[in-house]
Write a structure and sequence with these properties.
The chain has 354 residues and is of the alpha/beta class. 38% of the residues lie in helices and 21% in strands. The strands form 3 sheets. Strands 9-8-7-14-15-17-16 form a 7-stranded mixed sheet, sandwiched between helices. Strands 3-4-2-1-5-6 form a 6-stranded mixed sheet. Strand 1, helix 2 and strand 2 form a beta-alpha-beta unit.
């Protein structure tokens, strides 16, 4: 069963069995989530360290924040647990340098939702995972898919580095944008992915629809698209129907729909915004609510077969539920999975084309 999943033991169980000191590298939400799991299963944290530029004599969760060099002077042999996301080559290279000197794990904790991604979790969902694996359009997608799952279980960054694909290659070989695209950008942030697309179309397009729920991000988006023709920007969340949703604004990209917020934001479905008109590319990065956004674009997906670019990494179940949903809505799609430069397995995306 699932022969492509070779990792059976989680990094959590390996860390629990460790006799060496365990130091967490990083501060913030990721560290808090990892420390919460440590407390649940009885893993002891020996200390916290951060990149030298971020160490200013402060503390985190009651621990004094050290520099790595300080810990290396105090302790001969220890384990490093990475607790932040790295999406730039310089930082990724630094992480690999640390991994060459110390045992390093990157535990997978979901961006949204609860539960851990384990081998047992894969067995519970074996039929769905196998269906996705069998439906992928090329051998490289199957390798990426297997590596991502093995990474999520083991926390071993080598699984990521061996299947990292440059963004340019994905656009040129899979998406192949033309100069006449009707582009729907869900989770448009400050316009960065619009800019990205236009780099490959020489700034030419048919029309662009951009949704961004965070007010601060939307101001930046509106400034970016100001003066551009046939660009329709909405300060709204992508959803299955039109309405309103509770929304928590956070720094950068991490704003999200949440049941615990009193702040409300408009919600729109793609089918409603397009009004039965076609889209040619839909990009979805909506912080764990991709399933709802897909349902909100179901008519567009089934009738017009737009090329799809969908995040697969926010929830544990995304890696199998989202491909199966899109394939069910449009069985003609060819499905590809690619991972762009990132540690942990963020920027692992599904691409669907005819």
């Amino acid at each position: 069963m699932l022969p492509f999943i070779t990792e059976k033991e989680t990094c959590w169980s390996r860390l629990k069995a460790e006799t060496r000191p365990i130091f967490i590298y990083g501060m913030g939400d990721g560290a808090l989530k990892i420390m919460a799991v440590f407390r649940e299963i009885g893993i002891t944290v020996s200390g916290i360290f951060a990149s030298d530029d971020f160490v200013r004599g402060h503390s985190f969760e009651g621990y004094r924040v050290h520099k790595l060099s300080e810990i290396e002077e105090m302790v001969d042999d220890f384990v490093v647990v990475l607790a932040f996301a790295a999406g730039y080559q310089e930082i990724v290279d630094k992480i690999h340098e640390i991994a060459a000197r110390h045992t390093l794990y990157v535990p997978d904790v979901p961006v949204v939702g609860r539960g851990l991604f384990t081998y047992d979790y894969c067995i519970e969902n074996a039929d769905k995972i196998q269906q996705v694996y069998d439906s992928l359009a090329d051998e490289y997608s199957r390798k990426v898919y297997a590596n991502i799952i093995n990474f999520k279980i083991s926390g071993n960054i080598e699984y990521l580095s061996s299947v990292t694909t440059p963004k340019e290659e994905i656009y040129r070989k899979i998406i192949k944008p033309s100069m006449n695209e009707v582009y729907v950008d869900l989770g448009a942030y400050n316009g960065d992915t619009i800019r990205e697309l236009l780099e490959f179309t020489r700034g030419t397009y048919n029309s662009i629809y951009a949704l961004e729920p965070d007010k601060k991000n939307f101001k930046k988006l509106a400034k970016f698209v100001d003066g551009m023709h046939r660009v329709y920007a909405y300060n709204a969340a992508a959803w299955c129907v039109d309405g309103e949703l509770p929304f928590a604004a956070k720094a950068g990209r991490q704003s999200a729909i949440t049941a615990s917020s009193e702040n409300m934001v408009a919600a729109r479905s793609v089918d409603s915004i397009l009004g039965k008109k076609p889209a040619t590319i839909i990009k979805m990065d909506v912080e764990g609510f991709e399933r709802e956004a897909i349902w909100g674009a179901s008519l567009t997906i089934s009738h017009y077969s737009p090329k799809m670019m969908v995040s697969l990494y926010h929830r544990n179940e995304d890696i199998f539920e989202l491909p199966l949903l899109i394939k069910a809505l449009n069985p003609r799609y060819k499905l590809y999975v690619r991972h762009q430069l990132y540690i942990p397995a963020w920027e692992t995306n599904l691409y669907a084309t005819l």
